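Milestone M4 deliverable, item 7.
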Amino acid sequence: MSSQSVTLASAAKVLAASMPISDKRGDLYGTAPDPPRDHTVKRVLIVDDDATVLNAFALALPGFRLLLARDPIEALSVADRSDHLDLVITDFLMPSMTGDEIVARVRARHPAVKALIVTGHGDILDGEAPDWWTQEAHLIKPFGVTALQRAVTDLIGPPE
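Output delivered:
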């Protein structure tokens, strides 16, 4: 199987059991204190209410400083504690807030942050074409690891 044909969902299913909740760098979910800013490694805040998806994103984006949040409220808390963010990747539809709302609120603290919206509802959003949808980078689920990596590097470049 080529890396082109591996979807994020299939990678997540295979790797979910082996993905730690924390590692030697600290809590993957952003509850550990932020280390001093390393200006060479780009920071990416990832928001999704599905832990399996968060784990798959973490595995797909090695080299970046990843801050993972399991819900919008946690994401806003992580963003408030962070001195700098390069990118926010967020699911569009979550229980307490939509992805466009998360991006707007994160940008209140980090105006220059880039955004990537991921969703399984791309057909609806394409049809409605709200301004934010046409202006923000987005990926429609299911997508492959390569598509995610390409979208991230197109937005903010390589990890270092």
